[in-house]
Specification:
This protein is 79% helix and 0% strand. By secondary structure, the protein is mostly helical. It has a single domain, classed as Farnesyl Diphosphate Synthase (Orthogonal Bundle). Helix 3 packs across helix 5 and helix 7 packs across helix 8.
């Protein structure tokens, strides 16, 4: 009876993380639905954890965000160690961490990057690399732990492409959100870039770097386990479409608007990605 109720509790907590993902991100929700069923709940649980940590630093402006993040960090470590939490997001996350042996170093790096968002930092190349690793690359590595299901050789082989994909995603986000990051948070993540004087030459240089990372990431996507490949490829295709739209936009459009992909286009990308995967054309 005890195990039955624990299973019910775990299921309810996982459903909470699933709801969080669906409410906060249609793009990632779409990608997760393309995974084999066995991968969906663990990835929802990872995203729920990541989303709530990000929410602390980006949204709760009337609260002591440093206190909230420190408490969230402490509660996370306790949940992982005790293998239970009364916080539904942390309960579902700790289950995944313990089942798939996700390294604490990855979680540390992620929370360190979240803490960096609490301060007005002048990002040089080294600091940006640290931030992107913690805020994006390690999230991909947590997911890769799930996909590889304990196969450390396969995990190690795919680490570099997974990091490249996370980095490319994050840099596309930085370009897309340049206006809001500057207007509302006073941030400009790219080193030596002044938002007010941002020009086409700087934009082109950033885009060339992102393209290199997408190229490396694509080679890794083709090597993913079959049940994970379509979901990751769908997210890749969405971000490539967003990236291409950003490349076509001029600097003034980037500085004045947030470039978006409509939901109808996202559905088309999902359909075309599924067809390519089914025909082994990736």
């Amino acid at each position: 009876m005890e195990n039955k109720f624990k299973s019910l509790y775990t299921d309810v907590c996982t459903q909470c993380s699933t709801l969080i993902t669906k409410r906060y991100s249609t793009s990632f929700s779409m990608g997760i639905r393309a995974f084999d069923k066995k991968y969906r709940s663990p990835i929802y649980s990872i995203y729920g954890f990541v989303r709530f940590a990000d929410e602390i630093v980006d949204t709760f402006h009337d609260q002591d965000k440093k206190y909230l993040l420190d408490k969230f960090r402490a509660d996370t470590y306790e949940a992982i160690e005790r293998k239970i939490s009364l916080n539904p997001v942390l309960e579902s996350f700790q289950n995944v961490v313990n089942e798939y042996n996700i390294d604490i170093d990855l979680i540390d790096a992620f929370l360190d990057s979240m803490e960096m968002d609490l301060y007005d930092l002048d990002y040089d190349s080294a600091l940006l690399k640290k931030y992107i690793y913690g805020s994006a690359e390690v999230v991909g590595l947590m997911c890769l732990k799930v996909f590889c299901e304990g196969d450390e050789q396969e995990y190690n082989r795919l680490v570099k492409p997974a990091c490249a994909l996370g980095s490319a995603f994050q840099k596309v986000n930085f370009l897309r959100d340049m206006k809001s990051d500057f207007d509302f948070r006073g941030r400009t993540y790219f080193p030596n870039i002044n938002f007010l004087t941002f020009n086409s030459s700087e934009k082109t240089s950033i885009e060339a770097n992102i393209q290199e990372e997408f190229d490396l990431a694509y080679q890794g996507i083709k090597e993913l386990p079959h049940g994970a490949r379509l979901g990751v490829y769908t997210a890749y295709k969405y971000y490539r479409a967003l990236f291409n739209k950003i490349k076509r936009a001029n600097v003034s459009e980037i500085k004045d608007n947030r470039i978006r992909i409509p939901n109808s286009k996202k559905l088309l990308l999902l359909g075309s990605s599924a067809l390519k995967n089914r025909l082994n054309l990736l």
